[in-house]
Amino acid sequence: MNRLSIHYLQHVHYEGLGCIEEWILANGHQLTSTKFYADGDLPELESFDWLIIMGGPMGVNDGQQYPWIEAEKAFIRNAIDKGKKVLGICLGAQLIAHVLGAKVYPNKVREIGWFSIRNLHNENFLFGGFPEYLTVFHWHGDTFELPEKAMHIFSNTACANQGFLFHHKVLALQFHFEVTEKALRLMVANGSHELVPGDHIQPAEVLLAYPERVKENNESMFLLLNKFAAL
After folding, report:
1. Which of 67, 102, 103, 116 is packed most tightly, with the most Cβ within 10 A?
2. Which listed residue (15, 72, 111, 178) is catalytic?
3. pLDDT tens digit string along 134-157?
4. Average pLDDT of 42-55?
5. Bridge-partner residues for 79, per DSSP?
6. At what angle do helices 91-99 and 68-81 cross, to 10 degrees?
7. Is the dihedral of CA 41, 20, 215, 90 positive or negative?
8. Given 72, 90, 98, 111, which residue is catalytic?
């Protein structure tokens, strides 16, 4: 595998790269970051090969509360136009959909917990090796329409659009393959006010009860990153 320069965008202190950082370091890739909660300095596009955009509790249209969002959107759009590989997770996926012209809006239900999704393209190189159904970790209230010419890759009954691939270089995932046990505890500690009773919201003790699922999700993340790098 060629050594890559990878830059990531982080929106809140408790939603970092998770297990993605382990994959980056294990493969000897160079890692840099923009942490909008601390500073909003964005690099030159020529300085990196991949862009990774993480999650957060804000929405794509919250620019009045978070002034850096508009600059972030332009940066993501420019990275896509320059042919960078781009991976977005949760809010990151919504930002990608938004800059590609798709609508982002509140989902019919909030989805927080361990729920199944369906892999719609297990014949595809990128998603082959994954089963038809996977149990993954979710924490989102918004969803997105599919951008024009995007491949719809994951879905479930609570949220139809759980992921898409655009031009074989831009991958958007609504859920969290990357979550580690430490990251999960941080998300629960900082988002406990969202854990209200609901058909698609599990209580904190359930969210934290499945270390084996964390491991399975991380293994899926590693497999997907390896395949994405090979495209």
Report:
1. 102
2. 178
3. 999 999 999 999 999 999 999 999
4. 98
5. none
6. 70
7. positive
8. 90
Burial of 175 (0-12, 13-18, 19+ CB in 10 A): buried
Active site residue 123: no
- Positive or negative, the CA dihedral 158, 56, 194, 210 is positive
Question: Please, are residues 174 and 163 in contact by the beta-carbon 8 Å criterion?
Answer: yes
Report the amino acid identity of residue 188.
V
**Verdict on whether the full-model pTM lies above 0.85:** yes
Q: How far is CA 17 from the centre of its chain?
A: 9
Express each pLDDT in 180-200 by its tens digit.
999 999 999 999 999 999 999
Q: Is 212 a catalytic residue?
A: no
Residue type, 35: K
Question: Residue 29 — φ and ψ, nearest 5°?
Answer: -80, 155
Check whether 179 has a pLDDT greater than 90.
Answer: yes
Give the C-alpha separation, 191 to 188, whole Å. 5
Query: CA separation (Å) from 152 to 143, 174, 192?
Result: 13, 12, 31
Q: Is 176 a catalytic residue?
A: yes
